[in-house]
Design goal:
single chain; 194 residues; mainly alpha
Length: 194
């Protein structure tokens, strides 16, 4: 049972002071209910716009990931191509060294067959090829670490976006609940004046 307000205190053409105050209070509460209801639309619009921005951020994030993934694939393919090129060079040089050796042996007598300069060049070529292969292995390892690091960063960023979407949802829910609570309280107060 609510408070008694002399709303029905009309006596013909006259109204009591209490009924005038009660009517003003009722109109004020109705205005407040309309104003709070309008806030609900504003909250929906605000969080709708915020969700659109978040969706656009997620789209850009996914596009950035796709581009980075394509770059990583190209870098790996380039690395493999570099390794194959160094292997081809090694095989070609080895073949040339063998041919040069065979040609020298056929032109020279067996006493001169072991040319120290030719052996030294062979050794230098093999060493440079081994160094190139080792360098390529280091590049491949570094590339793999960079790719793994990038993937961890991507996962972390995705979790950040997910967390942000959850926070936006929670804030929207709180804002809507606050409005509903205010409307409920205002309607309860209005019920006392009718």
């Amino acid at each position: 049972m609510g408070k008694w307000h002399p709303m029905s205190g009309n006596f013909g053409l006259f109204q009591t002071e209490g009924s005038i105050q009660a009517e003003k209070a009722r109109k004020s509460l109705q205005d407040q209910i309309r104003n709070v209801s309008l806030r609900e639309e504003g909250v929906d619009e605000y969080f709708g716009n915020l969700q659109e921005i978040t969706d656009e951020e997620r789209f850009l994030f996914d596009e950035g990931n796709r581009i980075q993934r394509d770059k990583n694939i190209q870098a790996k393919e380039a690395s493999e191509t570099g390794y194959l090129n160094s292997l081809e060079t090694f095989l070609a040089d080895s073949y040339n060294i063998k041919n040069e050796s065979d040609a020298k042996i056929s032109r020279a007598n067996f006493a001169n067959a072991s040319d120290p300069m030719s052996a030294f060049r062979k050794k230098i070529r093999r060493k440079s090829i081994q160094d190139a292969e080792e360098n390529q292995r280091f590049k491949d390892t570094s590339l793999n670490y960079n790719i793994a690091s990038g993937e961890l960063g991507t996962r972390s960023n995705r979790l950040g976006l997910d967390r942000r979407e959850l926070q936006i949802g929670m804030e929207k829910s709180k804002a809507e609940q606050n409005i509903q609570d205010q409307l409920f309280q205002l309607r309860e107060a209005l019920a006392e004046y009718t």
